[in-house]
Amino acid sequence: EPEVTQTPSHQVTQMGQEVILRCVPISNHLYFYWYRQILGQKVEFLVSFYNNEISEKSEIFDDQFSVERPDGSNFTLKIRSTKLEDSAMYFCASSEGKETQYFGPGTRLLVL
Amino acid sequence: QKEVEQNSGPLSVPEGAIASLNCTYSDRGSQSFFWYRQYSGKSPELIMFIYSNGDKEDGRFTAQLNKASQYVSLLIRDSQPSDSATYLCASRYSGAGSYQLTFGKGTKLSVIP
After folding, report:
1. Which of A109, A103, A111 lies closest to A45 in space, CA to CA?
2. What confidence tens digit (pLDDT) does each residue in B45-94 have?
3. Which residue of B has its CA nearest to A58?
4. Which of A4, A38, B30, B109 has its CA 20 to 30 A from that of B41?
5. What share of chain A is helix, strand, coil (3-state, %, to 5)?
6. How far apart are CA A8 and CA B31, in angstroms?
7. pLDDT given for residue B19 in this prediction
8. Is A32 helix (H, G, I), strand (E, B) or coil?
């Protein structure tokens, strides 16, 4: 069964450093998303991406965040200058249409 | 402000019993509703979605939607210890170009053998 994959599974970085989280969505899916979940809190939407552009973003997704689909398979989330409060689990998701979003296993980001 | 509310639990049920998980939402523009299961430290796993009033059954799971009351529920029949997890309710707004899911905090379910 096809699944969303994410790398790395864990990332530790120093405050102020740039990080890139990578995702490979399910191959025939057209919509891609990033969510995050701070430990013990709810899953929060960051951004959605369709047809090579951002279709929607939340207040969390400020100028420090960017997304890119550099080739036909990868979908990346970049955080330019990490803050302590960026420590969270970051989930990539994809969907064929609007309804069913399938989540990847996540990248646990720890900012020191 | 779109909000999805869930009782955080824990909800404890004996093995073989029916577990009933509930969710309310604030935005009447919400169109579709999703139940995800999340094991500790893992990612959300889709169980089922519903967008019409009434019941929708899939194996041991039944989702119920009442748009007038802004209420969604998930029933798990013949609960198993492997069903022990946090269950996340999520809504999707019906606006054009809107794809984001709004999640509740989740209800922790514990199935006691």
Report:
1. A103
2. 999 999 999 999 999 999 999 999 999 999 999 999 999 999 999 999 87
3. B100
4. B30
5. 5, 50, 45
6. 34
7. 97
8. strand
Q: How far is B34 from chain A (nearest CA, A)?
A: 8
Phi, psi values for residue B64, rounded to 5°: -130, 135
What does each C-alpha distance from B95 to A14, B5, B99, B103, B106 come to in angstroms? 39, 21, 9, 17, 24
Closest CA of chain A from B92, distance in Å:
8
**Rounded-to-integer distance, Cα B113 and Cα B109, Å:** 13
- A88: nearest CA in chain B? B41
Provide CB contacts within 8 A for B51, sequence distance 6+. A99, B31, B32, B33, B65
Stretch 31-90 of chain A: residues touching chain B, C-beta under 8 Å: 31, 33, 35, 41-45, 48, 50, 55-56, 58, 89
Q: Is B71 on the interface with A (CB under 8 A)?
A: no
Distance between CA atoms of residues B19 and B79, nearest Å: 7
Measured at the CA of B59, the angle between CA B4 and CA B32, to 5 degrees, comes to 30
User: Which two tokens mark A20?
Assistant: 């890139």
Encoded tokens for B111: 């199935």
Q: Residues with Cβ < 8 Å from A16, sequence gap 6 or more?
A: A81, A82
Taking the CA of residue A55 and the nearest CA in chain B, the distance in Å comes to 7
Length of chain A: 112
